[in-house]
Amino acid sequence: MGYFDVFVWFTKGLQLFSAAKDINDTCRDENLSTTQKATRVGADSLFMVAQAAEIGASVRENSSAKLKFGTRIAAGTTDVVRQVAQEGLGVDTISTIAFRAADIADGSIENGYSKKKNLEKYIDTLKAAGTILSNRVLLRNTVKATCSFTRNMARDIRSKLKSNPEGVKAKNSADIPKLSEDDQTFLKKQFKELKDIADFSNLKNIPASLITDPVLKNYICPITNHPIRTIMTLNDDREEIPIIYFERAAIVGWINNKPKTAPPNWPTELLSLPIKHRDIRVCRHSQHAIEARLKEIGEDAQVELQNLISEFPFLSKME
After folding, report:
1. pTM assigned to the model
2. Is the same domain home to 168 and 268?
3. Are residues 80 and 209 in the same domain?
4. For residues 20 and 87, what is the distance between their CA atoms, to the nearest angstrom?
5. Residue 163: CB partners within 8 Å, gap ≥ 6?
6. For the segment 2-16, what is each residue's pLDDT rounded down to a tens digit?
7. Could you tell me if 293 and 186 lie in one domain?
8. Residues 210 and 71 in one domain
């Protein structure tokens, strides 16, 4: 069993516990009608039974391939039903559908029901993206990390102002206080970064400070060493070629300026030089994950930004 398989099964276990927690939360939610509660609890219960059956069948050595595949289909189907009952047809539900469809297709190949071996790499890619995006436990932890990051940025700005008598004096005023040059430089830089993140749809480059983000840290360009905003990957479907991501502007610039030199992390199997534009391609599912993550961070930054401006109106003029 490879590392990816371990990750998938760990995720399945988390989803099982997540469903149990969802049942508890649904029963306690006074804003839901009796019908809504019955629908959600029923969908979660069916999913838990199917998920437990799939895990059990995979653990037992004497389980037949047909039984394993059958429980795999059941778990996938009930997971989609559960998502629809909980959230409707949103991005998370579509991600779950993509993941489960890829998972079932993968099982079909493993059990000899399909011979389309050339689809295996794309199936693994969908499974990787879907596993991350469809798991609500991981998403909840990610949201907590988002709040912590943007809240810390706002906290640093407040601390700087509250520790400065001029900043305290200018509170609730639109007049820029007479701060030291270092304090002004710090506040302008920090406030601008928070403002850029809040304007996530127009963000051209992701700040280096987001390099530890639980999602964005998976997409670091080896050329810039920064989180990737617009992603590209190698245009090679061979299994022995590792998946490497690049910032589009960085890799395009490299090919244009240094085509006879391999960029950092370039696989030795692809060292036929010069490098050409056809050697790379757009990576849509990863771009979708980046966009979704930036939206989460940006929306939280907007809240922090509004609170800061409400407390210190002069910040909006410090540009």
Report:
1. 0.54
2. yes
3. no
4. 16
5. none
6. 444 555 566 667 777
7. yes
8. no
